[in-house]
Design goal:
With 340 residues, the protein is an alpha/beta fold. It folds into two domains: 104 residues; 199 residues, 3-Layer(aba) Sandwich (Rossmann fold). 36% of the residues lie in helices and 15% in strands. The strands form two sheets. The chain has a seven-stranded mixed sheet, sandwiched between helices. Strand 4, helix 9 and strand 5 form a beta-alpha-beta unit. Helix 1 packs parallel to helix 3, helix 4 packs antiparallel against helix 5 and helix 7 runs parallel beside helix 8.
Length: 340
Amino acid sequence: MPISGLANPQVSRFCWQYLQLESAPELPDGEVLRDEEAQEAIYKRLFADDAIALPPPRRYQLRIFKELIARVESAILNWDQHGISDNLMAVLSDLLSQPLPAEATAAQQRCYVTYYLSRLQTEPSAPDAQIGLLESRLLISASGTTGLRTWEAALHLGQYLCANPSLVKNKRILELGTGTGYLAVLCAKYLGADHVIASDGSDEVVNKLLDSFFLNGLQESDKVSAAGLKWGRALEGTDEHAWNGGRKMDMVLGADITYDVSVIPALVGTLEELAGLFPGVSILIAATERNRATFESFLNVCEKRGFALIHESFPVTPRTEQTGPFYNDESPIHICQLRM
């Protein structure tokens, strides 16, 4: 007998991939989908009134929902024994009745994305460990920045920190190239950081970080703040105080910030200055190896500047074994610890 309803891992996997706006979320097997309890579980988790606080865009909802209904229909072998949930059919009717934005318009709009933190979900009955963000799903937004979506290296570094929470607990952290603020939110909300400065060189990205904080209940928290920081420029405080008021930094984080050879000298220059300001600071960089030469350029510049590098052993989990968040397993993602 299949496990049906809310307890079915295939149902949970589909729901979390759907909320993460995966382009092709994995639908449960036909044996599961024709089960009434499984259909109702999907309805209650994704489509019932007030089921989710941050719903996906309607174009995405409609496309995935059509695929879901088609899969249910093809799975039913005996219509006297099984059928399609009335609730699911009502959702389909509602989605079809509402006008959709033009595809070009929808592509430029930011949309809600929810990431499930499976490594932090220790009890099934506990509230879901998740991070909700507003993202542009384009590789590069209309404004020209790549910082309005969450990249694989941030998700992978987040998994590493979830597996090693003592690295973060009670620490003061600076994140470089924060983008959507995924790692900053993770550290501040779930991993017990004392304070996280989420920094970026794009003013637009920094301004939108307030949305990320609000969506995760951190809008009035003293555990996280946003700041503009351009690599290669001297870190300066006021006449009365050193940078960041002279407060100590225990850790520097950076994910997917080594993608361009041209920015690496400035990036490493900033890391060097931070290491000088905060002796003993721990620096963790996660880099997706899209181009081996680019990654090696980063390593070479670090070594020339006097950094000792330790490569952490934390391979990407195969896609078929991921339980959330979900990300590409085709390219290696390196996690490097740097120390002066």
